[in-house]
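Tutorial, part two.
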Amino acid sequence: MLILTRKSGESIRIGDDISVSVIEIRGNQVRLGISAPRSVTVHRQEVYEQIQEQNLEAAQVSLSDKALVQSLWQKKGAKIPAKETSPEGKSES
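Running the prediction step on this input gives:
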């Protein structure tokens, strides 16, 4: 971790496109201004962790969800691919 000392009004650069400026220091709080391209997401740590948690939850698929999707496909008349079998003869799903 790189540790820098900056005073109010001073900045640091990250690469060519990101600038972090110390806007104000009040007691034990520091206000930072971050200038970055729109393609770079900037979040507070606790918000970033919540986003990661929610992404993991959204990626989980339960067996009941899978059965629901299959039943909806069947109602629409779509063909559901047969279960594939592995070389050992066990079905994969």
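The two ends are 44 Å apart (CA to CA). In part three we will examine how such features are distributed along the chain.
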